[in-house]
Amino acid sequence: MKALVTGGTGFVGRYLVQELLSRGFTCRLLVRPTTSIGGIAPHENVELWPGDLTRPHTLTGISEGVDFVYHLAAEGHVSALSQEAYQRFIRVNVEGTKNLMTESGKFHSNIKKFIHFSSTAAMGLIKKKIVDESDVPQPVTPYQKTKLESERAALSLGKEFGVPVVILRPCMIYGVHGKGEFFKMCQWMRKGMFPKVGLGRNLTPMVHVRDVVQGAIKASEKGIPGGVYLLTSEHSIELNELRQLVMKAWGMKALYPYIPVWLMVGVAWCFEMISKWTEKPPLATRRNIASTVWDREFSIEKAKRELGYHPQVSFKEGILETVNWFKTIS
After folding, report:
1. Nearest-5° Cα angle at 105, 103 to 107
2. Residue 35: its pLDDT value, please?
3. Could you tell me the CA-to-CA distances from 270 to 83, 191, 265, 274, 277 in Å, in that order?
4. Is the dihedral of CA 127, 133, 208, 175 positive or negative?
5. Which of these, 22, 188, 239, 255, is most buried using a 10 Å CB contact count?
6. DSSP state, 131?
7. Measured between alpha carbons, how far apart are the two ends of the chain, in Å?
8. Can you give the residue ranges of every domain in the chain?
9. Nearest to 142 by CA among 94, 83, 189, 184
10. Is 162 left (phi over 0), alpha (psi -120 to 50) or beta?
11. Is pTM beyond 0.90 here?
12. Pick the CATH number of 2-178+205-235+297-312 from 3.30.450.20, 3.40.50.720, 2.60.40.10, 3.40.630.30
């Protein structure tokens, strides 16, 4: 079997490629000329394809002889607000997906499944106790909007070209080698700069990278074409519990100041105003604060039922392992 992986040099992509190789796959990785591949060990079953999702001519023939496509490559900062950021996200997340789908359509008879990695961010902030795939997305930020637009592009073109597309929506992904939102949270906690906002439970959805890869493999095996699947842990974690696990792993104590919601919203508004002047993503937004204080839970019953997906990594195990790795790079 041969798999095409975009974003294969990234955090999740590297775990996925290693899992595919362990299963005997040959992996073709789309890599931009500027991409560092230092984390990809030389392997006889790894083929590098120089190209760029935003340059269709560099994708010609990329899906030939491929059995599965795993599309992970994406652009975006979850807090970015500028119009320039939106246009950049459109070029990669939406137009890039269309370019890859168009090229894959030429070889649709060989492709058994096209796994498109989206995010729970595509759903926006839905004020419901437990959110599932049937809920209508309400994206607001540039990143959220383009993630949903990329999903719709993949599904629409997949239907047009006869390519069986499956959409995956993982929540915040963490694990060793990940330097995304969770890494930032842990650094702020260590420095005593991560406050307790409001008096609620602040339920936070997270999923370990190994469980995301498990979901991706199962989606390629059992995913129903046109299906959308949420990938999270069994439940969300309370922010207090998350912080306790993180600080225990750091092996230290730090301040944990309480800030009322109204005050944090005001601070976030200031960050947003500064962002408009600097064109840089704000440290926090009012949407971030709303997400923090609203107890967010996602149902994975559909993924369990149709894919056989069952998260294996506990928060206690995963957070200890991850923060121990953070200590080696901090």
Report:
1. 90
2. 67
3. 18, 22, 9, 6, 11
4. negative
5. 239
6. B
7. 39
8. 2-178+205-235+297-312
9. 83
10. left
11. yes
12. 3.40.50.720
Tens of pLDDT, residue by residue over 179-236, are: 989 999 999 999 998 888 988 889 999 999 999 999 999 999 999 999 999 999 999 9
If one counts every other C-beta atom within 10 angstroms of the C-beta of residue 129, the result is: 7
Q: pLDDT tens digits, residue range 27-69?
A: 999 998 766 665 566 688 999 999 999 999 999 999 999 999 9
What does the block give as tokens for 11?
């955090």
Q: How many residues does the chain have?
A: 330
Indicate the burial class of 38 (C-beta count within 10 angstroms; 0-12, 13-18, 19 or more).
Answer: exposed
DSSP3 helix / strand / coil % (the chain, rounded to 5): 45, 15, 40
C-alpha 67/C-alpha 7 separation (Å) is 17
